[in-house]
Amino acid sequence: MIRMNENYLKLHSSYLFRRVAKRVAEFQNAHPDQEVIRMGIGDITHPLPPACLAAFEKAVKEMATRATGYGPAQGYPFLREKIAAHDFQARGADIAADEIFVSDGSKSDAGNIQELFADNIKVALQDPGYPVYLETNVMAGRTGAFENGRYRGVVYLESTAANHFIPRLPAEPVDLIYLCFPNNPTGATMDAADLQQWVDYARDNNALILFDAAYEAFIRDENLPRSIFEIPGAREVAVELRSFSKSAGFTGTRCAYIVVPKSCRVYDSQGTAHNLHDLWQRRQATKFNGVFYAVQRAAEAAYSPEGRQQIREIIDYYMANADLIRREISALGLAAIGGENAPYIWINTGRDAWEFFDTLLHQAGVVCTPGTGFGRCGENYVRISAFNHYEQVQLAMDRIKPVLQPIRKACAAG
Ligand code: MLT
Fold it and tell me: Are both 98 and 215 inside the same structural domain?
């Protein structure tokens, strides 16, 4: 009898963005004439930067006259060398091209890397947080049942207004720590001193940090670290996820990378250290054949002078949206954070998140993401994404105002 992985039965709901899409589809079926403005999932609205597109086209044409065949599973050196030089060495982070693994996305990398770890490790992750970290560990059997909004056996690192959305170190020893900064969904950032504490914690506890820096390109504060590898001591205890999705608009094109330093260690049951880089290379060699050649050429062009300039302009555009959203929402009297170094604005609505989601959808035709989808600390919060056309954001804000004003008045009167 073919038996199933029963850990899947523990999953308490469908994937967050599918749930949101389903509700929106139901609404649209019932109201076909209502134009909906999507500010839920963080998906890009700009086309590929022209420099990336030109490199993409050129590489596809090259394939008409030359068989590219299987590429290196780790990614082509031409791309890994650019990444190492621009994203790390230029900022004083000691990362070499052969410590970079090009992939089809950070979601896949976040899900895949945890198969290298034992089933009985203790996992710590931010609440609220990107659901992929938690759900992939549920699927792998590292959690107990779902009770009172949480899976048993997981250490939730609460990120709330009380701690300025920066979690404290865990009170109990943990083995695998997921940190995401700039944070999805809150938009909070961590400074070097805070990050140093986590690196020190990981070193003291032989733990590993999985640092998700998918939104690094949105950092505007020059004093903030962009990579965990800017922090002394991180090379032994951290891996980092990066993506071209949100920076160069590759959500549909698919290209990302994971940095696994050669000095990073994991331990067997006897306490003997093993090299995580070698394990990951072994895994990738067996299970992955690399990313489409032309996509890697397109990603390489993101580092050309024109590519960098075009990406900067696109990010500035999205961040102007973020400024507008935050300003308008704050003017309505709701507490909003994020949007300064991240494309997300995290809003305390003062009422149930899904109820607020429905109100915005039905009364304003605007889609947001309910905070509870990111964890229990997201109760009463929603996330608004700044990926959109500026005119659409203006229109969304115009539609939201008359919906929220009476709610605010009622709250103030109550
Ligand atoms: C988000 O909206 O949180 C992200 O776009 C989802 C993702 O990157 O998978």
Answer: yes
Q: Which of 16, 18, 41 for mutating ligand 1's site (highest number of atoms within 8 Å of CB)?
A: 41
Cβ pair 186, 128 in contact under 8 A? yes
What is the DSSP track for 186-211?
A: T-----HHHHHHHHHHHHHHT-EEEE
Q: How far is the CA of 176 from the centre of ligand 1 (A)?
A: 22
Strands 155-158 and 123-127: parallel
| Chain position carrying tokens 């969304």 | 396
Indicate the number of domains in the chain.
2
Is the pTM higher than 0.85? The answer reads yes
Give per-residue pLDDT as tens, 255-297: 999 999 999 999 999 999 999 999 999 999 999 999 999 999 9
For 354-412, write each residue's pLDDT tens digit: 999 999 999 999 999 999 999 999 999 999 999 999 999 999 999 999 998 877 766 66
Are residues 191 and 117 part of one domain? Answer: yes
What range does the domain containing 342 cover? Answer: 6-47+306-408
CA 246 / ligand 1 centre spacing (Å): 9
Do 329 and 223 have their domain in common?
Answer: no
- Same domain as 251, residue 133: yes
- Which residues surround ligand 1 with Cβ inside 6 Å? 41-43, 107, 130, 184
